[in-house]
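PROTOCOL LOG
Step 1. Enter all chains and additional molecules of the complex.
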Amino acid sequence: MTEASTRALPPQLAELVEDFAGVGPKDRLQLLLELSQELPELPERYADAASTMEQVHECQSPLFLAVEVGPDPEQHVHLFFSAPPEAPTTRGFASIMSTGLDGEAAADVLAVPDDFYIALGLGEAVSPLRLRGMAAMLARIKKQVRAATAS
Amino acid sequence: MGPSNDTDPKLAAYAHPERLVTTEWLAQHLDDDGIVVVESDEDVLLYDTGHIPGAVKVDWHTELNDPVTRDYVDGERFAQICGERGITRDTTVVFYGDRNNWWATYALWVFSLFGHPDVRILDGGRAKWVAEGRELTTEQPKPAAVEYPVVERDDATIRAFKDDVRAHLGKPLVDVRSPGEYSGELLHMPDYPQEGAVRGGHIPGAASVPWARAAAEDATFKPRADLEAIYQQEQGLSPDDDVVAYCRIGERSSHTWFVLTHLLGFSRVRNYDGSWTEWGNSVRVPIAQGSERGSA
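Step 2. Run joint prediction.
Step 3. Record the structure below.
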């Protein structure tokens, strides 16, 4: 990954990309597993995920996503995810988004390159097919951020 | 001599009961010599969150596929995969996994391409083992590497290629995808990513029997009589038919291949692993759309 493209990423996300890129494929999988265990619990208001959140159909296992954009001038973005424990890969992808993007300004979230996940180097470890869920997650987050900031 | 067979009465009714074991049987034979348990899942990390004690992992995407050519690994690589997991040619390999053993039957089918003699499925797979509160561990087994012979893959007996299927038109075909994929309304599984077919529909003449109809609520295989009712009475297939099963990339259809071959005793079933992602992208192959089988 070139320095120019790292600079476009929010600091937490850039750090994650560096962590992944810095280790071999087996350790990348271990890192993803640890992240999957750190996915924050849903707050009470999203308890009924299926009716209050958006489903990411591109993920192999059920994943629900909610995006909140704050009323402050920078429009800070908050992300909420729901995925079952028997879908650790999907949870890991969600955790990357949560760790990397939660609390960032709307403009910074929208500026994340759509293909940033390639730099994580997970293609070899989890297969490119499985990685599509991550691209879809980012696309849906951006879409919701755009919708929330347009009004 | 290998381990005994499971004599469970439900299994005994199947054509080849020696291809299945119950969770109870496996729990009692986990420490037996000559058995290796293999977990094969859709989710590449699921094994690492906890698995049956002593079980090793085989990932279909990253391990059983050739990384470059759209094909399975060759005999040399297969020998390596087995050898480093402590599997010899004489080992009893018991497969289990998530989603009604979908990927476990796929792994078993690939092992069968190499003619591995003793392959079995844990009836009910991961879901049943977990539901029964049986032991899981995150401890990684460290099997001593063993010698597995380099065996040439047999692509003629249980595998079909596109040209084989063209020559097969007019004979029994089973499409195991969802009804929407079969009719052509959907180009991919419901709730799954688009995996790139430019045309929707099915191979003319194919019967529509979604694969999961063979699974019961608890992820076990349905009893033999129920399976006969679906495949034989309802669909009119017969055990001496020459049958080709397909889906999207050949994984769901290996589940149906297992059911027809080992549970119902069909003598000639081939899995077309090119499946819809090949057929639906091929120039000038015949396609039928809608809920009718159509004819070639």
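Step 4. Note key features.
The two ends of chain B are 49 Å apart (CA to CA).
Chain B touches chain A through 15 residues (CB under 8 Å).
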